Amino acid sequence: MERRNTMQRRLVLECVRELEHPNAEEVYKLVAEKKPNVSRATVYRNLHLLTEEGTIGQVRTGEGADRFDHIAQPHCHFRCRDCGKVFDAAFFPQPYPKPARVGGFYVESCNVEFVGLCPACDKKL
Ligand SMILES: [Zn+2]
Ligand SMILES: [Zn+2]
Fold it and tell me: Cis omega before residue 99 (within 30°)?
């Protein structure tokens, strides 16, 4: 049982790494392609556990379901309003390592979301 759990966890983590800020359903779909016998409940439970222990991060976007991020440190995101994909906003200087004391404030997390068109959608218009 223990071994099976470890294997499922690793598989879920691997899928989060492979996808670009996937939501839980997208992770489940990729897991199911690799191992059809893993249930949706197992995938959701493992996503929750990995987030709780800080192995993966969670991205709350202004729209749709929460997404998961293989980078657990706080960083800025860019959401495309056309295709809905979420990217790491590498063009923007990343604010603070976690946690940080800034001007008397103890910063534990940071959530900055840029919204616009990704390069592919920008080209389409
Ligand atoms: Zn786009
Ligand atoms: Zn990210």
Answer: yes
